[in-house]
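= Tokenised fold =
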Amino acid sequence: MSACLTIEVLASLGPRRCLRTQLTLPAAACVADALAAWQTQHPTHPAPAGGWAVGLAGRRVPPTQPLQAGDQLSLCRPLRVDPKTARRQRFAAQGTRRAGLFAARRPGAKPGY
């Protein structure tokens, strides 16, 4: 068994901006250890403070979650706008006749078909 493990940390710093970092940690490391190591390498970035979500394999994990070699830890910024609200606003702005089922209709067809 190896005395250390290598993981990858992906941090979403802004729209379309991702910072990829490889960390080498002790074999018994947990998510909190990885966050501390990441923060020492990138002291100018605010993650994971301020409501950032920490995920492992697409699922939110607690700081006590143990890590395995090859894990990919994701640091995600908090949402500024609720996705449902943003979608409703976009749909209202483009109008009901130009979006979704009602966008392209045959002449004389029933609404929604």
The CA atoms of residues 82 and 88 lie 10 Å apart. The first strand starts at residue 4 and ends at 14. Helices lie at 31-41, 83-94.
